[in-house]
Amino acid sequence: MKYINFYTMQSVRNIAILAHVDAGKTTLSERILFASGEVRRPGKVEEGLATMDYMVEEKERGITIESGVAHFEWKNTWFNFVDTPGHVDFGAEVDMALSAVEGAVLVVSAASGVETQTVAAFKKLRAAGVRTILFVNKLDNPDYSLDETLINIEEVLGVRPVQMTLPEYTDGKMTAMYDVLSQSRLVHSETDEEVVDDGWNVEDGWDHSREIKRCYAEAVDFASNFDDDVLSLAMDKKPVPPKTLLKGLRKLAASDDYALCYAGSAMEGFGVRSLITALSFFLPEVPEFNSEELGQVIRLRHFKGVGEISLFRAHSNMERKEWPAGFEFSRLKANLLLPVEEIRAGDIYAMRAPFETELGQIIVRDGTVEPPASSWNHEVANGTHSDTGATSSSWSAEGTTGSIRDRYKPLLQTRVECLSTEDYHHVEKSLNTLARMDPSFRVQHDDGGFWYLHTVGEVQLDVLLARLRREFGCEVKAGEPEVHWQERLCHDVGPVENTFQIGPHKISIKLSATPLESDAHDIRLSAEFLETAPREILAGVRSALLETTETGVLGKGPLVGLCFEVEHFEWTEGALPPMIKKCCADAVTKLIKPADVSLQEPYMELSLECPVNFAGAITGDIQSRDGKVKEIGGDGRTHFLKAEIPLRKIFGYATGVRSISKGTALYSLKLIGFRNAT
Fold it and tell me: How far apart are CA 280 and CA 276, in angstroms?
């Protein structure tokens, strides 16, 4: 077995790449790997050869689904490069990636400018405090304007772009890129690599010399706001050397008001070298970690024939001989595992552990675990709750941790059942594994022997079903996806009494319920006298009442926004948890009838861009789906609109809008909230 050793003195940087769908971020990723010498030639997304899109579904669809991880070296810096999904169904992957990076590249297409997902990605980066460098892509087409895109960035994103590269065209074809900081010209070599044109000098008065000097002077002006040396030289009208300017731009890069902006063409491989150099210059170092921690689980993956692995960010430097028993660390390259002999703080590895890991889990140096950083309880997502540590009389199932699973609300539910009863336990285990791997996916077990899969969107559902078959060998029958509605209690109900007895053991409960305010979606429990009961009794009541609300009364979705009040509860010594569950469930059935609840359906905000000649047809289609247009705009070429539309009316919308617009429309969906169903 060949082992790979890495120099502990080498700097480490973890970076992510984000963009709107089709802005070219995976193509840019491939070009970065090629420019750094990590791959011999860049893989093409349209040919299904992208290095970082390793999944079959990614190659078939031409989109990134799971955050890919690759590695490369540049100027004595080791980079872990995380390519994130652009499709809205996989937004949780973006959040997971941002928890483990120091910097990011936000790709903006010069063909379309700042789009809806570009804005969403930028907001995520700002919220996560991730330093961001912009890359304007697709400038190989001279009809796309870099200047217009920079203006669009400033207007929409609210940051001042500092132009660091500019393109050169000859007879309508991109032939070179100019780097502002080094004031050099970059051309392609015979092997298609970007190299410095040694025969070009900015002082020789070439066509672009004046423009490069203008951009350099502008960078000096901006950097002078952050560095006294740059300011002093500029005030004295003295030349500012590149090294001095570099120091000022490093401080500028940390500001929220400015953004370093590089440009080029990922497809043609122009502007990539300057971008990589910027990543080595302008990103912060990895943070200081707790020296008692081995590291944190940031991603879970499953490979057929290999099993489950964790993407793991190390918090300590440690050689193989010091690793806890049963742990193995490797580099992940596509779907290959390359063993290493040491791990370094801040670096990302593929980890095999002797136990099942959880997202966000901290592992200490001796191999034991701390609770996940998000404090998310896996049982809550599957309809139960086992937290017995609360001491207040009001308990909320919704929580306030703000974990990644709390940020995504699956809005579709699909019934799935086994084709063969012998496969039941294998399918159950496989679904639970997929639910652990994907923070935005939920599995709900039904006592009838089937499951409900709760997903963010249709693409996510299709991919999960395909993975269930391919990776886990599970053959299942899936129904048509349905909207995951909500049920709300219309008025106070109860109290009712219920008793359940088996032999000498007896459980009795007196229960009532009250609706909460309209914007509350949690389930609360008021039972002050139970706080002195054994912990397992209180936990059993909480768990049972929460689980009964998951399926609702009408079976269309969960019952939300109410407070249960336990007015009386008796139990005999030795009563088992299933008895508590049965007694509470029957009490809820007695308490809340179909006439006591109202249905609410999810409404979405649809943001759409299309050429103006398709605006009328697209607007008419939205209105036919009971949508209401709330905002329109555009620049004479591109039409923009925002509309509110019920989710149940936009199943298959991707196919419909593609047909209407001949594939030119781009859209995104965001949950507004739930409204009374008509």
Answer: 7
Q: Please give the structure tokens belonging to residue 252.
A: 């500028």
Query: Which two tokens mark 515?
Result: 């609706």
Can you tell me the distance from the alpha carbon of 629 to that of 641, in angstroms, rounded to the nearest whole number? 7
Q: Provide the percentage of residues in the chain whose pLDDT is more than 70.
A: 87
HSE, CB side, 13 Å, CA atoms: give it for residue 357. 31
Query: 414: which strand partners?
Result: 453
Is cis: bond before 495, omega within 30 of 0?
A: yes
Beta-strand relationship, 482-483 and 505-515: unpaired
Query: What is the reported pTM?
Result: 0.71
Has residue 122 got a pLDDT over 60? Answer: yes
| Triad 510, 512, 515: Cα angle to 5° | 165
How many Å apart are CA 64 and CA 72, to the nearest integer?
20
- CA 429 – CA 434 distance, rounded (Å): 9
Q: What mean pLDDT comes out for the span 52-57?
A: 46
251 pLDDT more than 70: yes
Residue 457 neighbours by CB under 8 Å, 6+ apart: 88, 89, 411, 412, 669
**b or e along 276-305 (b: 16 or more beta carbons within 10 Å of the residue's beta carbon)?**
bbbbebbbeebeebeeebbbbbbbbbbeee
Least confident of 61-75, 160-174, 212-226, 644-658: 61-75
Question: CA-CA distance, 87 to 63, in Å (whole number)?
Answer: 7
pLDDT of 631 over the 70 cut? yes
Please check the confidence at residue 380 and state whether its pLDDT lies above 50: no
The phi and psi torsions of 440 (rounded to 5 degrees) equal -105, 10
Helix boundaries (H) for 382-521: 424-437, 458-470
Cα dihedral 465, 466, 467, 473 sign: positive
For tokens 């008796």, the residue is 570
385-422 pLDDT per residue, tens: 333 333 233 333 333 345 666 667 788 888 999 888 88
Q: What is the mean pLDDT of residues 100-119?
A: 89
DSSP H or E segment with residue 513: strand 505-515
β-pairing, 68-74 vs 412-418, is unpaired
* Distance (Å, whole) CA 50 – CA 439: 25
Q: What are the strands of the beta sheet with 307-314, ordered from one edge?
A: 336-339, 328-333, 348-352, 307-314, 293-303, 362-364, 369-370
Cβ-contact 125, 82 below 8 angstroms = no
Q: Name the token pair of 463.
A: 């991919």
Strands of the sheet with 173-179, listed across from one edge: 165-170, 173-179, 184-188, 194-196
197, 186 Cβ separation under 8 angstroms: yes
